[in-house]
């Protein structure tokens, strides 16, 4: 059914997801290879990281508990940070944050290597403003990122949507990344990493920016 001609529809309380792709940039092949090698090398050597993963039942390897300031450990992460800074500042503009002339600052950046069958259940990133992930290796059937409508708890008697329905009417929305994709969202937005259904590891670098 069409909307009556005299009516207007106003989208309010919009949740914005930022997506960018570095794969078209000059030198990308060498860059992604170096970052892939570096992530795997860190995973091989980081005993404290593996202890943390075991204690926290992480399905694979993350440097979150051992090295969450990667830019100090390898120059390739400083190169990545430069790219991320520009994208975060662009996103902050889109979101119309009033930062009083200051800029959001990288607080943590860490490696995730998700094993086949691994997943990361729903969570938010407290104490941060913008969070996101840069994707390094995404084999076929590796996990998408799943976002949850932040109003979910308030829906109560709202009927389900028709099939198909508009993407901005999703309650759970999926973004499937590829190597070189940057995804970012406001840190309060609940998200989860669905199960890695490929036979290979999925490698990513996640980050938090704060104020
Ligand atoms: Fe997350």
Automatic annotation (TrEMBL):
NCBIfam families: TIGR02466 family protein. It comes from the Bacteria. Gene3D superfamilies: q2cbj1_9rhob like domain (2.60.120.620). The lineage of its organism: Bacteria, Pseudomonadati, Pseudomonadota, Alphaproteobacteria, Caulobacterales. This is 2OG-Fe(II) oxygenase-related protein. It comes from Asticcacaulis endophyticus.
């Amino acid at each position: 059914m069409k909307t009556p001609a005299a009516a207007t529809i106003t989208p309010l309380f919009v949740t914005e997801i930022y997506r960018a792709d570095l794969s078209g940039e000059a030198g990308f092949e060498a860059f992604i290879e170096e970052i892939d090698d570096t992530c795997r090398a860190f995973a091989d050597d980081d005993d404290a990281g593996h202890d943390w993963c075991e204690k926290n039942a992480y399905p694979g390897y993350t440097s979150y508990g051992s090295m969450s300031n990667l830019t100090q450990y390898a120059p390739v992460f400083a190169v990545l940070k430069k790219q991320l800074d520009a994208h975060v500042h662009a996103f902050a503009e889109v979101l119309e944050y009033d930062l009083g002339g200051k800029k959001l600052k990288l607080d943590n950046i860490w490696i995730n290597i998700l094993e086949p069958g691994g997943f990361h259940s729903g969570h938010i990133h407290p104490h941060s403003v913008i969070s996101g992930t840069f994707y390094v290796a995404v084999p076929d059937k590796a996990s998408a990122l799943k976002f949850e409508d932040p109003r979910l708890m308030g829906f109560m008697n709202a009927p389900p949507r028709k099939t198909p329905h508009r993407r901005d009417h999703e309650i759970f929305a999926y973004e499937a990344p590829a190597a070189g994709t940057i995804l970012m969202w406001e840190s309060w937005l609940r998200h989860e990493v669905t199960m890695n259904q490929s036979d290979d590891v999925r490698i990513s670098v996640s980050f938090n920016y704060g104020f």
